[in-house]
Specification:
heterotrimer, A alpha/beta, B alpha+beta, C alpha/beta, A: alpha/beta, FAD/NAD(P)-binding domain, Enolase-like, domain 1, 5-stranded parallel sheet, 5-stranded antiparallel sheet, 22 strands, B: Alpha-Beta Plaits, two-stranded antiparallel sheet, two-stranded antiparallel ribbon, oxidoreductase (chain A), FAD/NAD-linked_Rdtase_dimer_sf (chain A), EC 1.2.1.58 (chain A), Rubredoxin_C (chain A)
Amino acid sequence: MNYVLIGNSVASVNAVAGIREYDREGSITIVSAENYYAYGRPLISYWLEKRVQDQDMPYRPQEFYEKNCVRVILGRRAVKLDPEARQVHLDNGEKLPFDRLLLATGGRPFVPPIAGLTAANYFTFINYDDVRRLEAFAIPGREAVILGAGPTGLKAMESLVQRGVKVTLVELADRIWAPALDPEAGALVAGFLQDNGVNLYLNDTLTSIRQEDDGRLLIELKSGRELKADILVIAIGVRPNVELLTGLPGVTINRGVVVGPDLSTGLPGVYAAGDVVDGNPPLLPHAAIQGKIAGRNMAGAGEIYQPLPPYNALGFLGLHIISMGNSAATGEEYELLTEVDPAALVYRKLVLKDNRLSGALLINKIDRAGIYRQLLEEGIEVTSFKDELLRPDFGLLSLPETIWQQQLAV
Amino acid sequence: MKKVYARPAYCMNCHLCEVNCIVAHSRSRDLFRAYKRENLRGTARVIVEERLPLSVAVQCRHCDDPRCVAGCISGAMVKDSETGIVYCQEDKCVGCWTCVAGCPYGAIRPGEKNGRPVPLKCDLCREAGEPACVAGCPNRALVFEERRAGA
Amino acid sequence: MPTLSLMPPEFSVVRDDNKCIKCLACVRQCGFDAQQYDAEDDRLYAIDANCVNCQRCVSICPAGALTIYKNPPPMRPNAHWTEGHLRNIVKQAETGGVLLTGMGNDQPFPPYFDRLLLNASQVTNPSIDPLREPMELRTYLGSRAEPVSREESKDKTRTPLVPIETPIMFSAMSYGSISHEAFESLARAAKAFGTLFNTGEGGLPEDLYEYADHAVVQVASGRFGVHAGYLNAGRVIEIKIGQGAKPGIGGHLPGEKITAPVAETRMIPEGTDALSPAPHHDIYSIEDLKQLIFTLKEATRYQKPVSVKISAVHNVAAIASGIARAGADIIAIDGFRGGTGAAPTMIRDHVGIPIELAIAAVDQRLREEGIRNRVSLVAAGGFRSSADVVKAIALGADAVYIATATLIALGCHLCQKCYTGKCSWGIATQDPYRSRRLNPEIGAERLYNLLRGWSHEIKEMLGGMGINSIESLRGNRLHLRGVGLNEVELKLLGVKHAGEAM
C-alpha cells in the first residue's frame, strides 16, 4: 500500500501513527511545502519569545520518521492531483503514485484588501517562516499594530510584547476574541491587556497603509484614527488550502473540503484532515484527532469521526483562558453559572442549555477543565449535580457515582 | 497495560499518595528536601478528591487515544508505544495547558518547576518501576495491575 | 462542661516543625479532633485536651514529626491518690455519671502468667525439633464419649467434635461494637488458618456467611441476630452468660452505633440502643441453662456443639461443673483481664478473678468429678503471647480465645475509647470515614501472621518439653513451675515452685 500525505503538520504526523497501528508495511510519503519537519504551529510565538529554541521545534523527533519508515519530501508543493492515474504532481515535476492520499494542507492566513498593503509591509503569523522574518524587526522600542484580536493576534501580541515591542491591537468586533469571550470576560481581558501596556482599539479596522519617508508605516483606521508603526501583523483568520481538490469529480468544497464520517472525500482513496476540512474548527487537537482517525481509515479501520465542539487553551502574559463550546453564549435559552473575581482576574462561566453543558469559559482558574469538556462532548445531563459544577473542589466525585466508578475503572 | 486503580472503599483520605508522588518526582527524592528546599508542596500528580466519608485518588488513566497527547502543541506529551505510559517530556512543554482542557478526568493540573511550566500528571513513575503512590499507600487503596486483556 | 478545667490534659501532642511538611495527614486521621489546621494562617496545632494517645497521627505522619507525651501527674505524687483516681473523681464531679471505659482491666494486679515458667528436656529425655519432626497443634473441641467404645455410638444427642488447627481462637467481638472491616478481618483469618472466630452477640452480617463454617455463633441475653439460619450456619453455638470485663452486668450498645447494616444484622430498629440484660431472663438456674442448651441443640439437630461462656468469678469451679452437667460441650471462661467495647470502669477493674486461677480450679474440679472429658475448656482474657497460651493449656485449658491481641494486631493502641465510637484505627467504630481505614485484606493477613507466629512458637516450646502434640500438654502441670508465688497460690494453680523436682 502506498500512502501519500500532503501537508506536514500535526494532522499528517498523527495520520502516520494511525496508519502504522494497522499497516506496518506500506510505504508512507509526506510532502511538505515548508522546509521543516512538522512542528506545532502554535509554537511559533514561543519561538519568537525565545522560550522555545530551534532544536525544540519539531513535533516529533527524527526517530519517529525512521521508526515508521516515512519518506519526507521537504520544500515541495503538490500542485496537481490526478485521480485517474492516482498520482500527485509536485512542483518539481515529480509524480508520486498513491493508493491512499491524505489532504492535510491546512489553511493560509486571510489577508483582506487594504489600500496600500503590499507583500513587503505586513506580516502574517501562522508559520515558522513568518516568525523568522518577523524576528529581525521585533526589537525593543519598536511599535507594532496587529489587526485581529483573536487567538493568533493575541499570541502575536504576547511574543512581541515580550520582545519589548509596543503593541496596538485593532479588532473589528466589539471585544477581544469575540467567538470565545462574552462581553464581561472580554472587558476583563481588555483591562488586563491595558494594564500590560497594550493599546486596544475595538470596533475598528484598517483602511489604508502608507510607508512614510522614515520607513515607518502610517496606518489609518476606519474610525479616522492614525497610527504609526514599525510592524503590521494581519491575524484575522485562515482560509482552507483546498486548491488541490478543486474541480475534481465527486469532491464537494464549501469553505473547506467536505468529508464523510470516515473523513473520506468524494474521491476514492482520498481523505482529508485538519484545518482543510469543511466545518472543522481550526484547532490543533481537532487536527490531530482527525489525522489519527484518517490514518487508521486509510489503512482500512473504518472508524467514525464524531465532530468535536471547539475547545482551546490560550495563555498570554501569564493569563490563562480555556474555552469550549458556546463559551460566549448569552441569551434566554441559556442558563449561566458564573464565578467572577475581578481582583484575581478569575472568571469562570458555564453555559447550560436544557441542563446540559453547552459551553464553558475559564480564566485563570482552569483546574479540572477537561471534566467540563467531557460533560459537554458527551452531552451528559447535569441536573443532579448542577450545584457542584463551580465548587472549588469540583471533580470526578461531583459526578453521579455510576459515571465516576466507570471512569476510575478505565 | 498495568495501571494504577483506586479502590475507594479503602481510601482513608490520608493523602499520603500525594506526598509519595511529590517525593518521587522531586530532584532530591528526599521527603524533607522535596518539601522544605524544593518547595514542592501541592505539586502531586495524583489528586485525592473528597466527599467524605468517600475519598478517592484520581490520576491519569493513560488513555488509548489520549486527548492530552492529541492536543499538545509542542509534542511534549507523548504516549510510549511500548509501555502505553502517557508522559510529558517536560523540557519541551510550553505551558499552553491544552492538555488540561483535554483530560476527561481532570487528571492534569497546570504546574511549575524552576520557573518552567510542568503539567502535573502521573507518569506511573516510569523510571522507577512501581508507582510511588501505590508502594506507599498504607491501606492498599491503590493497586498497580493489569485489568483489561490486551490493553 | 465547667468553664474551668480542674485537670490539665493527660497528653501533650508535640510537633517537630523542622520535620513537619504540613501534609495534614494527622488532621485528617485524628478521630478525636485533637489535630487541627488553620488554613488562613497555614498553621497546624493540637488541642491536647482532645488527645487520647491512640497514636494514629504518630503512625501516619510520613515525616515522623509527631510525639505524644504523657503529661506529669497533675498534682504532687501520691501513692494512694493516684492520677487515675483523681481524674475519675473530677470527671464524675463534672458529669455525675458512671465512669465508662473500654478494653481490659489495666490495673496492676499480679499477672500469674508472669510467675509461671515452662520446663524443657535435658539429657534424660529428648527434645523435638518441630522443623524436622511432626508436631500436632490440631485440637478437637467438644464433648468426648464415655466410655470410649469400638462400636458406633447410639447416642443421637452427641454433637460432633470440631477441629481447630491451632489452639487459638478469636474471642467474641460483635458486629456493632467493632466495624464490619474488623469483623471481616477476623472471619477471613480464621477461615484461612483453620480456626474459629466468634460473632459476639450481634449476629453475623449477611455478606459474611461464607465464613460461617468458621464461626462460633453467640446467643446472648439480648438474643440479637439469632435465628435458625444463623444457628445452623455456625460451627459452634455459644451461650454467653458473662464477660470477663464486666461480670454480672449486661451490655449497652448506643443507638449511634446501630447503623442500618448493624440494625439489620441484629434484627432491631436502626438507631435504637441495643440493651443486653445482665442475666438471660430465661436462665435462673443450671436447669434453665440445660433447657437452652438443648433447645439450641434441637434447633440444629445435634450438629453443633454448644459452648457456654462465663466470667471467671469466685465460684467458677462449681458453676463450670453445673454447666458440664447441663450438657454443654465447651465451657469458655473469661478472666478479669478480658476486654470490652464498653464497661463501667469500676466493674471492669474490680470484679472477677484471674484466668490462670480459674482454669486451674475448673480443670481440677472437673477431673475430680470425673467429667473433664464431657467438655472442652477454653480460656480467655488477656492472652498476650504464645507463652501465655502454652501456660494456660498446661494449667488445663484445651484452647484459648484471644481478642485484645487481635485488635492490637489490627492497629489498636489501647486508648480505651472504644465506647466513643470514634476509633481512629477503624476498629471500634461504625463511622464509614473511620472504618474504611481498616482494609480487611490487610487485617486478615496481619491476624494470620499473628496466628502463624504464635503457633510456631508454641511448637518450639512443645518441642523443648519433648511433647509432640498440644493435646498431650493439656493439664500437664508438671511442666509448669511457679516463681515468687505463695503456698496457697501454688496449691490453687496445682504447680510446684521453681527448684522443686518432679
